[in-house]
Design brief:
Layout lengths: L1 E7 L12 E8 L4 H15 L17 H12 L3 E7 L6 H22 L3 H13 L2 H28 L8 E4 L8 H20 L13 H20 L1
Parallel strand pairs: 1-4
Antiparallel strand pairs: 1-2, 2-3
Helix pairs in contact: 1-2, 3-4, 4-6, 5-6
Organism: Vibrio variabilis
Protein name: DUF3800 domain-containing protein
């Protein structure tokens, strides 16, 4: 399974309620990747964008026939789009900083409850402090998007494309090969949120004859065996 992540908007503190910022994830089953790429190339040709170029400003009309055909094609291929957005209000400085502080406190509490490294958690809190308001806002949205996405795609693709659940390949819009502070914070926040959420509310798996979780559970079992071996070596 391939999951392509990108954002739209400025993510800056503002009192303009109409201004929105979003993070989206396009999920593509393994057997649909080549056809998806072909459909994207066709879209670019039809709207006059070079094959190797991104679709940027000035943005073409998303209600045009080429875009409609592209979306219909993605739906036919079994792709799904997951988006989380916020309006201008929650991005205001004071409320955003309160969210930053509550996030740091939650990390420290989680460290105490789960016996996690206190020094590592303090380091993560320090990294969070180093994020701009814009970066922190985007990081929080991206964290929530992906942790909620997993709960949806596993039961959905267990029916539509079970083999795609054997491996998750994440494609992020990276500007550099060197890991940035934003990427480090996101990695820690995402892992922590998944751990804390799954311990409180275990992943719901819809059981039915037409759903096959074998690929997903088999890969999960293999990962657990590898982690145990690494733990024994240590």
């Amino acid at each position: 399974m391939y999951i392509y992540i990108d954002e739209s908007g400025l993510f800056i503190p503002t009192e303009v309620e109409e201004q929105t910022s979003s993070v989206g994830a396009l999920v593509v089953p393994d057997n649909a990747v080549s056809e998806m790429e072909s459909a994207l190339q066709t879209l670019k040709v039809e709207i006059g964008v070079g094959i190797d170029e991104e679709i940027k400003r000035p943005r073409p009309d998303c209600q045009s026939i080429p875009f409609e055909d592209f979306i219909v094609k993605l739906n036919h291929l079994g792709c799904t789009l997951h988006v989380i957005s916020t309006s201008g209000g929650p991005l205001q400085g004071e409320r955003l900083e309160k969210h930053r502080e509550s996030t740091k406190q939650a990390i420290l509490r989680f460290a105490g409850i789960e016996n996690k490294s206190q020094s590592l958690c303090e380091e993560v809190c320090s990294l969070i402090d180093n994020l701009s308001s814009q970066q922190f806002s985007q990081c929080i949205l991206q964290t929530y998007l992906i942790s909620e996405l997993i709960e949806k795609v596993i039961p959905y693709y267990a029916k539509l494309s079970p083999g795609s659940l054997e491996k998750f390949i994440w494609e992020f819009d990276r500007k550099d090969f060197v890991e940035t502070t934003f990427e480090r914070v996101f990695k820690y926040l995402y892992i922590g949120r998944v751990q804390s959420t799954s311990s409180i509310n275990p992943l719901p798996l819809i059981q039915s004859p037409d759903r096959n979780y074998g690929y997903f559970l088999g890969r999960l079992q293999l990962i657990m065996v590898q982690l145990r071996k690494q733990s024994c070596k240590i």
